[in-house]
Structures are given as structure tokens and as C-alpha cells.
Amino acid sequence: MTTPSKADATADRSGDALPAIDVRQLHKYFGELEVLKGIDFHVDRGEVVCVIGPSGSGKSTLLRCINRLEDPTDGQILIEGDDITDVDADVDALRSRIGMVFQSFNLFPHLSVLRNLTIAQRRVHKRSRHEARKVAEHNLERVGLLEKIDAFPAHLSGGQQQRVAIARALSMDPDMMMFDEPTSALDPELVGEVLAVMRDLASEGMTMMVVTHEMSFAREVADRIVFMDEGVVVEDGPPEQLITDPQHERTRRFLKVL
């Protein structure tokens, strides 16, 4: 009996049945330390999946492997059916389908908000100055910051900078958005404005994968919650089940201390 090839494994799915993100037996080592230990994980199109777990559980590494900011040691990652881990993959093209928002805002401090939102559009998508500005204006309006288009990052609050970072990611027309603890660097009073933008994106049907400690957001917005610990997926289920009636003792212990 022959073992199915990667191409065969992809071919058995078609059309909308393809997950947005499909992770198969993903391993990641840093030296001798195994951070991800055979992760199987998927996000369907239009789905919001929140990933929770203690620090050091591998959550951020999982996100970084999915868009190839980190190279997996072993395993397979399919983005809408295309294998981003294949040696012949056009990683830049596949990565362009994924909007990424980090803990730190990563805005260019010497550029205005407008330039932060248009520089990649013009270089990657080859948009004209006029077209890139229109896209930037549209996405700044979506996050409630159109009036800050000519401001510089130093003149914005942390919450405003993170909303600009979301608008910048949206300006590349991604198929899905990934958030790596997007509120962890914010003062508590600024968290709400960023979560409100993310709620709006979810209501619009954006596919989202969110690493977060904001359990109220996960309960309200997520279709599924994934609990990770020590490099493995311990439990995966809808919020009403995983939060109120977790099946695994490790999940119960984690939720008790929140």
C-alpha cells in the first residue's frame, strides 16, 4: 500500500471545503528544545479561532510558523490548499494572503500613518499612489482613524497605533488575519478599542486566528477555542463548552487561575 503524497492529501479536498489554514503534524525545534510537538490544527474559512494557554506553550511559535516567519522543523502547513512548507512554494505570495498583527505595533516611526499603509501596497501590489491612498483611507475609516492619516506613530496612543497596524494589514487585501496577543502591550483602558475593531472584522466574516489572554473576547467572538500547553493542543472546542465545561484537567487548572 502506497503512502499518499502531499499533492494527493490536498487533492482530496475541493472548493470551499478547503480550510483556510490546515496544519498537519507540525514540529518546531529551537536547538534541542522541541517547542511544537506534532500539532494538528485547522481554521475554516470565515471562522474565528482563539488560541489560549500559558506562556511558553507554543502559541506564538505556531502563528509564526504558519506564515513562515519561523521555518518548521517538520510537518505541513496548507494555506487554502497550497503548501507553504513545500520547498518549491512561493512563500511571499502565500504569505501575502495572511494579514499579521503583532504584540508590538511595528509601525515605521519615521513615516506618517498614510505612508505606513501605502508603502507595501505600492511595492508588493504595484498600486498607484492614488489607488494606494484610497485603500488606506478606506481601512483607516474601518478602524476609526481616518482623521489620523497624516499623523506620525509617536503622536498616537498605543491603542491607536495597534488599530493603524490592523488597517495596514487589511490594506494588503488578505484572505485571513492572524493576531499575536494584539492587546498585551496596551494599557488596560486602551484594550477595548482594539478588541472592538477585531469584533467588527469577525462580524464581517473575516477568517481570524487570535492568540489572546482576553477570555471575554474569546467567549464572545470565537467560533472555537484551542487550548495549548507544552507544545501540544490539549483541547479544542466551542467557547461555551471549553470555558464552562472543559474536558481536560490541564484546561480546568488553567482557566481557574484567570
How are the secondary structure elements laid out?
Blueprint: H1 6-11, E1 21-30, E2 33-43, E3 48-52, H2 59-66, E4 74-79, E5 82-83, H3 91-95, E6 98-101, H4 113-124, H5 129-142, H6 158-170, E7 176-180, H7 188-203, E8 207-211, H8 215-221, E9 224-229, E10 232-237, H9 239-242, H10 249-256
Parallel strand pairs: 3-8, 3-9, 6-7, 7-8
Antiparallel strand pairs: 1-2, 1-4, 4-5, 9-10
How would you describe the overall organization of this protein?
- The protein has 258 residues and is an alpha/beta fold.
- It has ten helices and ten strands.
- The strands form two sheets. The protein has a six-stranded mixed beta sheet with strand order 6-7-8-3-9-10, with helices on both faces. It has a four-stranded antiparallel beta sheet with strand order 2-1-4-5, with helices on one face.
- Strand 1 (21-30) and strand 2 form a beta hairpin.
- Helix 4 packs across helix 5 and helix 5 (129-142) packs across helix 6 (158-170).
- The longest helix is centred in the last third of the chain and has 16 residues, at 188-203.
- It is globular and about 55 Å long.
- Mean pLDDT is 92; it is low at 1-15.
